[in-house]
Each structure stands twice: as C-alpha cells, then as structure tokens.
Amino acid sequence: MLQYLVISILTCLCIILGVAYYTVLERKVLSYAQTRKGPNKAGIAGLAQPLADALKLFIKEGIMPHGSNVSIFVLAPALSLTLALALWHLYPSSFSYKYVAWGVLLFFCVTALNVYGTMLAGWSSNSKYAFLGALRAAAQTISYEVSMLLLLLFPVFLINSCSWEDSSSFGFPVMLLLIPLSFVWFTSAIAETNRAPFDFAEGESEIVSGFNIEFSGALFAMIFLAEYASILFMCMGTSVWFLSINFFSPLVLTLEILLLSIMFLLVRGAYPRYRYDLLMMLCWKSFLPFSLSGLCLVLMYGLML
Q1: Which residues fall within 8 angstroms of residue 242, CB to CB, at 6 or more apart?
Q2: How far apart, in whole angstroms, are the C-alpha atoms of residue 93 and residue 99?
Q3: What does the pLDDT look like over 171-217, one tens digit per residue?
Q4: Model confidence over 240-251: pLDDT tens digits?
Q5: Cα(3)–Cα(6) distance, rounded to whole angstroms?
Q6: Furthest C-alpha separation in the chain
Q7: What are the tens digits of pLDDT across the range 252-265?
Q8: How far apart are CA 115 and CA 113, in angstroms?
C-alpha cells in the first residue's frame, strides 16, 4: 500500500512538472509562429518561467465572488485536477504498481466525469458569463465524447483487449488500416480538451474567458493544470492506441507524445476559431456517422475471422 502511494505521488509530480514545461513549449511555439521571441528572461532561455508563474499563482490572494457557492467553487477545480491526474495511472509503464485489465472502460468512466468539473465551476461562480461558458463547454465535451469513444473502439476490437498494456499486440500501427480515422480522432481530441480552434469554453471575445472567469490564484492554477494534463494524456492515448508497434520503447513513445503535443500547438497557431454551430454540426453529422462506419468495418472484419 505504501509503495502504491509513493508511485502515485511521484506520477502526479512528474505530470505536473511536464505540464509546467509544456506551457513553456507552447509559448515558444506560438511566439515563433507569430514572429516574436516568447519568454526568455526568467532563467536560461526562459526555462524558469513556469516556476515563476506557479509561484505567482499560488501566493496570489484567492477571491470568492459575491453570492457564489463557496464549497462547490473550491471543489470544482480540485475535482478536475484529480480526474486528470487519475487518468495517468493507465499509463502502460513497467513502473506501474497495479495492472488495470479493463483500462479502456476506466478511461470511458473518468472522461465522462470531466464535464462535471466544468459545469460545477461555471454554476458555482454566480456569473452569467461563467455559466454560459460552462454550458458551451459541457455541450461540446459531451458531443465529441460520443464520437471519440466510438473511434477508440476501433483499435480495441482489432486488438481484442481493453487493456492499455496489450495495445501493441497488433504488430503495426492501427492508424495505417484507416488513416482518415486517425485524423478524425485527433480532431475529436482537440475538441474534447477545449483547445483552439475549438476553444469555445474560453472564447475571450465572446464570453469573457468562459467558465473560469471568476477563478484566481491557486484555484485557477488547478484548472490550468487539469486542462494541460488532459492534453498530454490524449497525446499519450493516441500514441498507445493508434501509433504503437510491437517493439516500441519508452523513448519512442516519448517522442510520439512530444510530436503529437507539438501538433496541438501548431493547430492553435495556424487556425482561427471555428463557429460554434458548425462545430456541433461537424460532430453529429460528420464524425459520428464516420465513427459508426469504422466500427461496422471492424465488426465485419471480426466476423470474417
């Protein structure tokens, strides 16, 4: 039990540290995409910037909005961060203490709970802007979650296993069987994590930063950490289920995650924000029929075998 607790704490600390330096990478990529320098003052080449940002956020005074539900206002960021870090215990590593035989089902359950953190954060703020942002984010997350989970069943049925540790048993990357499916999965992952160009939960020009408008200090930092931890986890999940091969090593997996995380940043730097009604139409009229068709293909393949 003590060993499991130590491994869990170390995993969470590593993810938080990875998120901190992913923010530096994001600011550097976006700055070069916009022909500017980005953070370069704090430490060597700006490497101490995330530590300075974390110090500023955690020593900043916390502000409770008038009329807000204080207990839920504090609980919502903690719930979001806890769920984001809990997902990382599915990471297929030799250092894992527990073997989760039905890891995909656990992933489905935890991702379904993510929307509650966003909704509770917006509702408990007692702000119409925060509540509007929470409604948008919830509708977007629930919609794309449906197609994303159906897309994930494609490699699961091919491999005939719900365990993350068995994802490399197919022999070659699953994405080579149906390449468009990988692009639809990647787009759904961007929408699921509320990233640009689908960042309607935090559309500054329309809804004043969305559901997190009333959060500051440590509570805002927890929401921020949860969002970026989810992004890195989606990159890891894409690498494991769609790009993994029999002989993949931790180094190859790390490089795949880094490449996919940079693609998240390049998409943000290259594309303008999408229109909300077109986003929902894209999900229900394009991605959902496509994911169902892919699922029918893999079921027919299984019946022929």
Answers
A1: 155, 173, 174, 175, 182, 185
A2: 10
A3: 677 888 888 888 899 999 998 888 878 877 666 555 567 788 888 88
A4: 888 876 545 778
A5: 5
A6: 63
A7: 888 888 999 999 99
A8: 5
Alpha-carbon Rg for the chain, nearest whole angstrom, is: 20
Four-CA torsion 96, 97, 103, 105, nearest 10 degrees: -140
Q: Is the dihedral of CA 230, 82, 53, 216 positive or negative?
A: positive
Domain limits, the chain: 64-304
pLDDT of residue 52: 87
Distance CA 181, CA 187 (A): 10
